[in-house]
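Hi C.,

You asked whether I'd gotten around to modeling the 478-residue construct. I have! Everything is below, sequence then structure, no commentary in between.
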Amino acid sequence: MRGLWIACLNHTDWPSRKRLGAEEMRADFTAMLDAARETGFNAVFVQVRPTADALWPSPFEPWSQWLTGVQGRDPGWDPLAFMVRAAHERGLAFHAWFNPFRIAIDPDPARLVPDHPARRHPEWVVRYDGELYYNPGLPAVREFVLRAVMDAVSRYEVDGVHIDDYFYPYPAPNGRAFPDDEAFAADGRGFTDRAAWRRDNIDLTVRELRDRVRAVRPDAAYGISPFGVWRNHASDPAGSATTALQSYDAQFCDSRGWVRKGWVDYIAPQLYWHIGFPVADYAVLAPWWAEQAAGTGTQLWIGQSASRPGAPGRPAPWQDPGELSRHLALNATLPAIGGDVFFSARSARADRIGAIRRLAADHWARPVLGPLLPRLAHTAPPGPPVLRPSPDGRGLLISPSAGRDRPRPFQYAVYAYDADPGARPPADPDRLTALLPALTTGHHRPAGAGAGSWFAATAVDRAGRESPTCGPVRLTVV
């Protein structure tokens, strides 16, 4: 995984500013994708439900204010359909990112559109720390959130369903408790410990969403990006050697339990800290998470910060362009870590001190196939593509194999050989020279290839399943 978060809340990444026209928004988004692909990213995690709203025509929730500046205003086009297609045209996996319970980053319900579900059901709403939230302790809320999310999952060809770190909100600085007395009294389900009840509310949501996603889109990756510390060792012998906020206790997220119980396909803990940070050392947390994921079948992708390198006021390690590269070097020593996701697109593109360029040069010099979920490893791959030399002998013509029963290819992986590799050459990762988007590729001219170069190709579907190689082709003209 070489993933990139694209946040829509408050114009963090996209749309880049208020009241852009549709053509400007589309151009901005495709430019962001082109920059991501050029850097070496292979997947985008796009926020499509930032605040109980929608970047698609949802029958459940209003159009997002981040599109037009006005909540509920129809932009006149379908951004989610466009974004999925644009990503796939570039060979980028598209993970739809949902925030489950946040309603607004403002405390006044009257500022929501009149027909907003939160105004129709004020009993669902909690005002906390200057924001509005749906109450996770209410069964009607959990069901509504799941239905709103699944509307997008069922209608669009997303490659993943992604939930961020906001379940119960982060604790308010004034220490005020989340006000859910009535919900606990009404539906405590026999719990006497309110913290355990809250964790169960989140567990019910996580598990039920997994079941619904797999029923509708079984090839899609389902996962969560929690706060990077589950529990500190001082609170729990199974916890990490850290002294940070504990998401298990503060947000009621049993992220370690989700991994060990197989409730998610992947976990992407947000380890936005430098190596040597006393409170939460990256060099402590990456191995701790690797230990939790090892042998579980749950993929581990590390959430990295693209915004901290070079940021004013950050400590000295974040002023070093090599800090993130060292994170990836450490990851490479931990087999359970299968990649990284970076927050976020605007920062990665700005790349203040060259940290992203540095890590890409150090670790992403070669293309790599995207992750294949262990539960899909033994399902049928697509058929091998058809590969032929172009009429001028300098390039390759590539097309999908015939057969309606085969999965549609998402990418073509091209492998290079110095001599005739035989009828069915191996798909050796060290010989992978290009990953091409199948939607837009029919011709490929390999860089630096000359007469006598041999090539073979495979088809890769959107789940990451790779076909056998096709018969090899030899270029005849320099």
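If it helps when you're writing up: The mean pLDDT is 96.

Thanks,
B.
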